[in-house]
Amino acid sequence: MRINLKTSNPTTKDPLSVLKSHLHAACAATALLLATGSFAQAADLNALIWCDHADPALLQPFEEANGVKVNVKEFEGTGAGMAIVEQSQPGDWDVMVIDSIDIPRGVEKGLFEPLPEDKLPLADLFPQVKMDRSTVVDGKRYGITEKFGYNTIGYNKTKVDPADMQSMAALTGDKYKGKIAIYDYYLPVIGMAALAIGKKTAELTEADLPAIKQELLKMKANAKLVGEVTASQTALATGEVDILVGGGEWVTAGLAKENPALDFSIPKEGAVLWSQSLAMFKDSKNKDMALKFIQYIMSPEGQARLATSACYWGMPANTKAALTDEQKKILRFDEQTDFLARAQPYPAPNADLDKKMQDVWTEMLQAQ
Amino acid sequence: MSATGNAGRALPWALVTPALGWTLLFFVLPFLAMAFSSLTAHDGGGFTLSNNSQFFNNPAYWQAMVNSLQVTAIVTVVSVLLAYPFAWILAEQVPERWQRLALMLAVLPFWTSYVVRSYSWLLVLAQNGVINRALTGSGLFSEPLQIANTRLATIIGFVHFFVMLLTLTIFANLKQLSPSYRKAAADLGAGPVRTFLHVVLPLTLPGIMVGAFLTFVLCIGDYITPQILGGNNELLMPQLVMMQIGRRGDFPLASALSIILMAVVTVAYLACARWLKIERA
């Protein structure tokens, strides 16, 4: 449809009426555009995602098979994701990728729809990553773990002694001072600091924070930088640092072809298990398609594509993921049973402890 | 009153209404919303001043403001010191016909994305970057210097950007300066140095201060440069604000910190405005 903005002759009308008519036309055009946009969105699948789901290699097969367009919006951090949802209209979003430990937050806000367990491949998942304590609320499943990995020690094996990487003591000793980067996310690294001082991540309380802070300060004293995903990954890849505290397969696997010297260890103290889940919105207008999307992501093919996404690699939650032998080797697929046995869950503090943990992290960042 | 007279008076209002509406919608209302948010509890409770008091009670938060002010002050002073001679050379020494080209070359880095430019600086300043390779290759240093991921790197990234901005404002001021001032000073026996110090510099001070104020405002509120180049070895205020949003979504605390940052900018504006008498009589 074409809109003719020239509804009057400016030479024969006063300026105000010309302006008024143009404003009317502009409003009409805007309304039409908005209406068209809403219509298009209602027919599509709208997904709030992390960057690994934006990979066309992951989305295209689903879009082609189902004749649907997947509109994605990336976010970082559950708080930012929740803010997007709160600023949207009910029904704007169909599915969401979320930290598994944060699913109860979404349920508490009344955002999520229970998922039909009988239509999901739950039996094929690694048992340790089903995370039922977070993904099941009041007996109903609101999320399904799709990808996981470890916040542990990532390193360049040509620059450090791999034997040293079997203990977190290497992170606070003098040997690698100035050769260390810390991943800038307080929960997993606080979890690692807790492991280093012999605490269980699932049992952390406010009383543990002073000792954890001391451990973090020791790590900071040895660190060259504290960086978010890109910065810490770049620092390790370019040789700016040799060790990444909080790193794991999510850093090293994607870079394996370019830099096979990058590796990760699960030290004797253990590692922190991270996991991300998919959830469906209660107000979704496209629940059938949303479920199909979740089923696709959880399928062996979808799992392989998600695990090797361009943004970052990670372990597929489904044991039957259709990975190649080479991909399995890079992800150290066959060692997962041992890794999972030694990993501890992501810290899942309540709101009050969460705030205190973030303040400890802030103090660590400000320490000189 | 005739219809034409009414229309004539209404026209300016009609023309200015979009700008006023824009400001109202995208500045005044969001600001009020932010101010309101800063006075509410994160857990959905009622009115509270705890968000504001946290800033004053937590030394790590307070330190972020100290860091921001220190970095901003250094960046502003260094940028002015570099930009003034640069602008002066462009305005006074470069032939008129080349000035446009010279100015365009001077602001060429503006044409690239701010984020890309910051990452480029990271590569230049890194341990294996251009600067360290030159320093170690020339034998000046045996070990690479730690420049990237430091406050110095943040300052370098900022100064690179703001020197361009200040050059533009100072250049415009210098070009507006009538040559008769200098001729009069010379007639009265003043040498080039005295003319510069007592005539040119005072008359171009408004341009310097406008540029310096813009530098202050943009620098103290910038998140990208310290985040990319500073290596998070210290936090500045915008980083502290963003930190409240990421996982916890604590918009009330983020709002309170933002309001405090805006208050500092307002104080800086009032100080500049009063000193320079920017407002027209």
Helices and strands in order:
The complex is a heterodimer of chains A (368) and B (281).
Chain A: H1 15-43, E1 45-49, H2 56-66, E2 70-74, H3 78-86, E3 95-99, H4 103-108, E4 112-113, H5 132-135, E5 136-137, E6 140-141, E7 144-156, H6 169-172, E8 180-183, H7 186-196, H8 209-222, E9 223-227, H9 229-238, E10 243-247, H10 249-252, E11 262-265, E12 271-281, H11 287-298, H12 300-307, E13 315-316, H13 325-331, H14 336-342, E14 343-345, H15 351-366
Parallel strand pairs in A: 1-2, 1-3, 8-9, 8-10, 12-14
Antiparallel strand pairs in A: 3-12, 4-12, 5-6, 7-10, 7-11, 7-12, 7-13
Helix pairs in contact in A: 7-8, 8-15
Chain B: H1 3-38, H2 50-57, H3 59-93, H4 96-106, H5 114-125, H6 130-137, H7 151-176, H8 179-187, H9 192-220, H10 224-229, H11 237-246, H12 251-276
Helix pairs in contact in B: 1-12, 2-3, 2-12, 3-7, 3-9, 7-9, 8-9, 9-12, 11-12
Task: Describe this structure in a few short sentences.
Chain A has helices at residues 15-43, 56-66, 78-86, 103-108, 132-135, 169-172, 186-196, 209-222, 229-238, 249-252, 287-298, 300-307, 325-331, 336-342, 351-366, and strands at 45-49, 70-74, 95-99, 112-113, 136-137, 140-141, 144-156, 180-183, 223-227, 243-247, 262-265, 271-281, 315-316, 343-345.
Would you write up a description of this structure?
The complex is a heterodimer of chains A (368) and B (281). By secondary structure, chain A is of the alpha/beta class. Chain A folds into 2 domains: 43-148 and 275-341, 3-Layer(aba) Sandwich (D-Maltodextrin-Binding Protein, domain 2); 149-273 and 346-366, D-Maltodextrin-Binding Protein, domain 2. Chain A contains 15 helices and 14 strands. In chain A, strands 1, 2, 3, 4, 7, 8, 9, 10, 11, 12, 13 and 14 form a 12-stranded mixed beta sheet that branches. Chain A has a two-stranded antiparallel sheet with strand order 5-6. In chain A, a hairpin with a 2-residue loop joins strand 5 (136-137) and strand 6. In chain A, helix 7 (186-196) crosses helix 8 (209-222) and helix 8 packs parallel to helix 15. Chain B is mostly helical and 281 residues long. Chain B has one domain (41-276): MetI-like (MetI-like fold, Orthogonal Bundle). Helices cover 77% and strands 0% of the residues of chain B. Chain B contains 12 helices and no strands. Chain B has helices at 3-38, 50-57, 59-93, 96-106, 114-125, 130-137, 151-176, 179-187, 192-220, 224-229, 237-246, 251-276. In chain B, helix 3 (59-93) packs antiparallel against helix 9 (192-220). The mean pLDDT of chain B is 90. Chain A binds chain B through residues 14-16, 19, 76-80, 82-83, 178, 184-187, 224-228, 231, 234-235, 238-240, 351, 354-355, 358-359, 362-363, 365-366, 368, and chain B through 4, 7, 10-11, 14, 42-43, 58-61, 63-64, 67, 122, 126-128, 146, 148-149, 227-228, 231-235, 240, 243, 245-251.
